[in-house]
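INFO batch 0412 | record 1 of 1 | parsing
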Amino acid sequence: MNQALAVRQDFGGTSSTLAAQETASAYVAAQAKAVVEARYVMALRRPRQWDQVRQDLLKECKRPSFANNKSAYYRKPIGDGVEGLGIRFVEVALRCMTNVLVETSMIFEDEGKEIHRVSVTDLESNLTYPLDVRVTKTVERSKPSDDGTYISVRKNSYNRNVYTVPATDDDLLNKRAAQISKAIRTLGLRIIPGDLQDEAEAIIKAIRLDEAARDPDTERKRIADAFGEIGVKAADLTEYLGHTLDTCSPAELVNLRGIYGAIRDGESSWKSVMENKAEQQAGKSGGAGNAGGGAGAGNGSKGGSLPTCSDEAFEKKKAGWRKAIEGGKSVNDLIAMIQTKELLTDDQKMEIASWAAEGGAQQ
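INFO prediction complete | emitting tokens
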């Protein structure tokens, strides 16, 4: 073995001289340690200035091209609608904050799935949020593979066969990128201060509404063309709205823009949008019927509104809900089912979403 004299800069700033063996493993370990130390040293030497972070972030949000980006702000058709800041916002916010490290590494792989560990670290506070993401190597198609083979088959709501087939390299790349992006968004929002999120959300909504109000005809055409690209016809939009597109209000145009973003990013589908619309209309009709039933309606909710699930009730029921997730039920379907009876808070929805990730890590 060759012996070499190395001078090392420690994290504490002191230097030491060591006799080190030049092996591949020692080199890789030293390199990894140097990279980690360099990141934390730079974070200490150049701490973020929150006023500057706020200015930079809100400046980005005020750009119409950013505010109208489908991935900056989305709307999911769950219950009365679930809105939230998207991955594009999180990416910009973390860049404005500086001293934030996002890491992704594959920790497990077999023939059927991959498990990736995604972590977001605030280098200044040394706070890390990790999340394991499970990516299955299959996709669902309306027909078997070219050679006629498939893994499994099921009937969809239209009583048509849906086949589970092995994912191609492109399919797997898209699934992996989508799942990792969702994890980064979820973890990044835990790092970004809530008051900045609220301000940014208000600006994005205002710009979208202003754009729709200033030139509703152009915005209506853009939205119709965007939905057409994902297979949703103008007649489908008319059915959803209950009136023709040319009578849309600016608020309805903003709502459609958010739904388009959720569908385009794989967060939802047009089928689930229409199913949720039907459930909401049925709930309102039932609520109105109860209200007209006299004093007996006093125990129900007013105007068809649903009660919010309390923390105590959530703790009692979450074991059964968790079994549903472990049994293969999707997070969106479970939340939609629950919210036909009671509303969930954002924290409760986030906990339900974490069960799917935990289940993938254990398999």
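INFO post-check: The radius of gyration is 25 Å.
INFO record closed
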